[in-house]
Amino acid sequence: MDKSPDAFRTISEVAEDLDLPQHVLRFWETRFTQIKPMKRGGGRRYYRPQDVDLIKGIRHLLYDQGYTIKGVQKLLRENGNQFIAAVGTGDMAAVAAIAARKQEAAQAAAASTAPRGGVDDEMLVGEPKVKPSRRFFGLGKADDDGPVAPGQSRLSKDNRALLQEALFDLLECKRLLDQVR
């Protein structure tokens, strides 16, 4: 006797349907807090249809698409349960609609924070607050000398500020590149 599509499923039924061992489902519950089966007395798990769809999506991303657990966690954080469940059910129209809504929201947020002037803040990564010294860049000194003056074990305040700003600029570049990926 087959169950209704809206019926709750036991862990053995879900494991059999998805061709997964039961211990994998239990493990995924620890890694993906979005999977929350109802538990009855004795710890018996009952999965809702939404849970099964979410697990199908996670399984597809991990096993078929080659994502890591951290990658799927990031997708869940960024796109939500509905997106992953739509991936699991193969509903590409829903996946596209959710992605389009997310992109529209990101564009609206970017438009609301865009500068009113002619220059886009995203294009300027940062400007130095301190003018770089010639010594910092190795101009007009011996090859043995570095940004630390001979006999000192620390950078000058100006050179330290330049290094901190360069680090900030590199981190901002990394953030921008990660957004594009």
Automatic annotation (TrEMBL):
* UniProt entry keywords in alphabetical sequence: DNA-binding
Q: Which SUPFAM superfamilies does the entry link to?
A: Putative DNA-binding domain
Quote the SMART domains the UniProt record gives: HTH_MERR
Q: Which InterPro entries match?
A: DNA-bd_dom_put_sf (IPR009061), MerR-type_HTH_dom (IPR000551), MerR_fam (IPR047057)
- What GO molecular function terms would the record report? DNA binding; DNA-binding transcription factor activity
Q: Which residues form the HTH merR-type domain?
A: 10-78
PROSITE patterns membership = HTH_MERR_2
Q: Give the highest taxon in the source lineage.
A: Bacteria
Protein name according to UniProt: Transcriptional regulator, MerR family
